Amino acid sequence: MKIGIGIDTGGTCTDVVAYDFEKEQIIAYGKTLTTKEDLSIGIGKALDKLPRECVEQAEVIALSTTLATNACVENKGGRAKLVLFGIEKETIAKVGGNYGLTMDDSLHFINSKTKPTGKVVEAPDWIGFEENLKDHFESCDAVGIVEMYAKKTGAQFEKKAHSMIDEQLGIPSVCGYELFSENNIVKRGASALLNARLIPVIEEFLRSVEKALAERQIKAPFVIVRSDGSLMTEQFTATRPVETLLCGPVASVMGAVKLSREENAIIVDMGGTTTDIAFVKAGVPQRVKTGVRIGKWDTFVKGLFVDTFALGGDSGVVIDDGKLVLENEKVMPLCIAARKYPDLVKYLKKEDESRTLYRNQQKEIYLGLKNIDDRLGYSAQEKEISRNLYHHPTSLEVLGKKMNTIVLNSQIERMIREGILIRCGITPTDAMHIKGDFNQYNREASQYGINIMARSLAIQPDVLCEKIYDEVKRKLYFNLVRIMIEDAFPTIRETGLGEQLECIINDNFRRAQNGVDSIEFFGCQLATPAALIGVGAPTHIFLKDVARMLGTEAHSSEYSKVANALGAVIGKVNAVITIDVSYNQEMDDYIVYGGGERLSFKDLEKAKQVAANLAEEKVQIEAINRGADDNLTISCNGQETIVDTEFGPLYMGYKVVATASGNLKLR
């Protein structure tokens, strides 16, 4: 029996499955809380829920995680900078925001000039670049590097800058050409910067997995899911974490497709932080055409189509202008915080008994997740705040008294963004505990928090819980309809729904929620024949009602709550390499370029043959580096483009696309 173990580390829970490759079935599974202060603890506890013999016999460990996804949605990540060669600041200022770039100190511009043919007209000032390396990049966790026309130049500037940063500073730096071959330098730059920001996030995850496996003497190799559903090795992942952008959501899609028999379905995966939506049409998961877009980032990452939005069991519930609102930000539910820190219950009870109202930011409670005493780049005050909150959930009011000052939200925003602190507050998970739909944590803490918020809105606690449920359903319904409209009408995806369509969607929700099926004079009904497939622990609580409102059915199974972990372990390894040939009129020769290479030939047929050989060679290396065994299936297709003009045929180029696929190399 060949056994694999799938592990999914989400923002709230860590799931694990033991899978029999020969029988294609789950042997055992488990679920536990994700331990953000030390991810290895939660991973280890999840592994301990499996039969010991399954763990010992495992030939491979396959991982998925929503850490990168959540970091993008919440705009978190490590400290990173992007080096841009040959592009004007004005260009980034004008269009950079479309891709996620902002004109701040994360961007470092280097003057250079390169022709579209790849000929360098003006080289960078390398002496000045080297002299300023320490000042510009020493405080960074990682650096991304892109240059204009990198594909045509063989990425010579990117390679040299990478070498200098590595030799002088020893911090991770990744070249744009290693990630993507497309020409748009702004989009490549955004992708490279995001990759750099995610390096410390994924590094922590990988080290945590190593630690958990080592403590249990598990020697099986481990791999991680890419955004297209294929797998890659730990070493590959460490420098290309942007490839894991939709790792967790895609794993859930693959797992849900395996579990479901529906030909046409909408996969709905609600976790602690986000909800992910994917389409299955005629039994095939749909793919993105231009690159993954998530949060503010528009990237060249290839993958399955997954729309991710902020909605989960741990979405913060707040009062804004007298109305109940679900925040995009994840907070730690009071019930979870209180289970680990029982003194929080005493504080909440005292606040409830004193008839406190939820109207003062100084009453908000924060918890320190990491100790930063020995870290560079933080002020003395930030370290003192972190020290006082580390393993001690405390309100800003109490913290201020302890520090003999007033601590403002603005003073802790950066530490929240970097995952040092987290707010503890009311969430849908707390409402689930009050309503009895979930009872794993401390219900008493949830009750006190709900009491305080309900009093602030002048309603009963049970009414508040219903309102929280209704808001979760409304947000889920709204986004499902939005995504289906954007799928049916691609132009709307580019321009946005607009206020009128949003009004129609919300009006349909209210009518459907109240059970109004008939239309008196004029109106529309929003529906889909596709079944809603629920994935994730809290999804089933809300999905049945939303499915009814959309005129369809909701399905889930015993294994739906661990579909992410299942999707991780059933993946394969794929790789794609593109090599181009173009005519260089200036030198009257043919240039072969791509994959960091630039070669010139006088003979076209020779250039085409070299391009094909180069593509096959590089795609084989790429697939093996990602973790495939030697038994690869490789295909190579070339396409030549010649257009007719009034002056005769015009040679536009030759493109070779090589693909390799294979099974994971087992122990």
Automatic annotation (TrEMBL):
Q: Name one GO molecular function term.
A: 5-oxoprolinase (ATP-hydrolyzing) activity
| Limits of the Hydantoinase A/oxoprolinase domain | 188-324
Q: Name one Pfam family in it.
A: Hydant_A_N
Superkingdom assignment: Bacteria
Q: Where is the Hydantoinase/oxoprolinase N-terminal domain?
A: 5-167
Q: What SUPFAM superfamilies does this protein's entry cite?
A: Actin-like ATPase domain
Provide the GO biological process annotations. Answer: glutathione metabolic process
Q: What's a single GO CC term here?
A: cytosol
**Protein name according to UniProt:** Hydantoinase/oxoprolinase HyuA
Organism encoding this protein: Acetobacterium woodii (strain ATCC 29683 / DSM 1030 / JCM 2381 / KCTC 1655 / WB1)
